[in-house]
Amino acid sequence: MVIETSSVHIMESGSSSRRTVPGAQAIARAAALLRLVTASSDGASLHRLAADAGLSRSTAHRLLSALRLEGLVDQDPSTARWMPGPELYLMGAVAASRYDITELSRDIVRSLAVKTEESAFLSARRADETVCLIREEGPFPIRSFVLSEGIRFPLGVASAGLAILSFLPDHDMDAYLERHPELEERWGRPHGPGPLRTRLRETKARGYAVNPGLIVEGSWGIGAAVFDREGRPEWALSLTGVEFRFAPDRLPQLGRTLLAHAHQLSSRIAGARR
To answer: In what residue span(s) does the IclR-ED domain sit (predicted)?
Structure first.
């Protein structure tokens, strides 16, 4: 049994400041398309990319064609779907030496999946979103596929982003909510300012976030922030599974296990060589 995810829309952050920089709108649109392409494991159609990026088909096609000339995206000749291009791999290999923590964290994510028997993840904060970096399957046969490598969610939506947002300084949290009044319309009433602030307070008091099936009905998740050397919440570990696996009598145990692994990873990051 699996629980499938619905389509994920990519948000642009800081759009008001971009308008003051010449050419910023075109770059922001191209970047949004790149994020959408990389979030689709089997490629994405022009129609879907244009819709999710909020662009006309002609504008999306023009930008994708320009990105293809630079090797940043590619198009499958048989399906016409757009996919990541070879230049992204080369750029990513260079960037990984500075930003990649997957080697530091993979065994911790795997341990989390084994001990809880649920699907475990590492997500990284990227501006106003989280992006999933690692997925490890637990042995329990019923799984939720809301999250996988490359999938992005706005902060405060999935459990990983809720955990990260709750541990940001208050002024950063307030600024984020002011930038994104569309969260309630896009993700439902629980993501309106009032309910979301309540969940953020509960998360900070509890230590970990709980997503009670708010993205896909019946698919629950919990997330705990992972901190950098300066104490900033830049990553999160999370677990997802079907609702009955997150019952009130088991949830605290899962939360303690999750927090212990998140603390272990934060300590490992703090002790890593600069």
So the answer is: 87-271
Asked if the domains 7-94 and 100-271 are classified in one and the same CATH topology, the answer is: no
Please tell me the pTM assigned to this model: 0.70
Distance CA 215, CA 156 (A): 11
Full DSSP string of 201-266: HHHHHHSSEEEESSSSTTEEEEEEEEE-TTS-EEEEEEEEEEGGGG-TTTHHHHHHHHHHHHHHHH
Q: What is the pLDDT of residues 74-120, one digit of tens each?
A: 999 999 999 999 888 777 766 665 556 888 899 999 999 999 999 99
Task: Express each pLDDT in 19-55 by its tens digit.
Answer: 456 678 888 899 889 988 887 768 899 999 999 889 9
Q: Domain-by-domain residue ranges, the chain?
A: 7-94, 100-271
Q: Identify the CATH number of the domain defined by range 7-94.
A: 1.10.10.10
Architecture of domain 100-271: 2-Layer Sandwich (3.30)
